[in-house]
Design a protein that fits this description.
The chain is α+β, with helices and mostly antiparallel strands. The chain has three helices and 14 strands.
Length: about 250
């Protein structure tokens, strides 16, 4: 009977030791783990969530915010003007088909611009004939001369092919004026000067505004007009004037 009890006691001891070891291991693992509701864990979780949200917002802003357009990108590029059909605010041509000659001599240009001599192709003298194909409200004519389409100031032309220019007068200046007698006004506003020059000692005497009428008594090939205004003989650039319709 004594012999039968010994194995039972031994097994009981072993079982107790194993149970204690299991309990100790369980406690050890539990102690190593932080509680799920640990404030530090919550704080870390909130920080991570905030960072994630900011990243998402940054991504959203980047995807949906339009990129800034640079000045170079926003600049509209227009096609260059052609010399065959220069365009100005009042440079539309009324189609005509008539022979003309110069009242004296006039420059024929590749474009409607008197601000430079670079566009002068040739000149039309009195007696030489060109074909005028268009007249514009801005005082220019489109002509075909020696196979080229060119432009010149309309007031220098005449359809009277037998026209003989009167003797030129100089008013004491090098500039020679062809006598005319016509009413003119400024297209907008133009300076009337005491001599036909924009350089000193030329002085502006008065300004002629649109609607105010002067009498043009002479036109020079150099682009100047001689006018009478308020009892004075003055000078201005011809391209700034337009004829007054009677």
């Amino acid at each position: 009977m004594e012999k039968n009890k010994k194995p039972i006691i031994f097994l009981s001891v072993v079982a107790g030791v194993l149970a204690l070891s299991l309990i100790a291991l369980t406690l050890f693992l539990v102690l190593r783990q932080k509680p799920q509701n640990d404030p530090e864990d919550s704080k870390d979780a909130e920080t991570e969530e905030a960072n994630t949200t900011e990243t998402q917002e940054d991504t959203t802003d980047t995807e949906h915010t339009p990129a800034l357009t640079t000045e170079a990108e926003s600049t509209v590029t227009y096609p260059p003007e052609t010399t065959d059909a220069p365009q100005t605010s009042d440079g539309r041509f009324q189609e005509v088909n008539e022979q003309v000659t110069a009242k004296n001599e006039v420059n024929l240009r590749s474009s409607m611009d008197q601000g430079t001599d670079d566009n002068i192709v040739c000149s039309l003298v009195n007696g030489a004939i060109a074909l005028r194909t268009g007249i514009a409200e801005n005082g220019w004519s489109r002509v075909v001369y020696e196979g080229q389409t060119l432009y010149c100031v309309s007031s220098y032309l005449t359809t009277d092919l037998s026209y003989v220019p009167p003797a030129a007068d100089t008013d004491g200046f090098k500039t020679q004026f062809t006598p005319v007698n016509e009413k003119v006004t400024a297209k907008e506003v133009t300076n009337l000067r005491d001599i036909p020059s924009v350089l000193e000692p030329s002085q502006v005497v008065v300004q002629l505004k649109h609607g105010e009428v002067a009498v043009r008594t002479g036109i020079a090939n150099e682009g100047w007009s001689r006018v009478e205004y308020n009892g004075q003989v003055l000078y201005c650039i011809s391209s700034y004037l337009e004829l007054v319709e009677e």
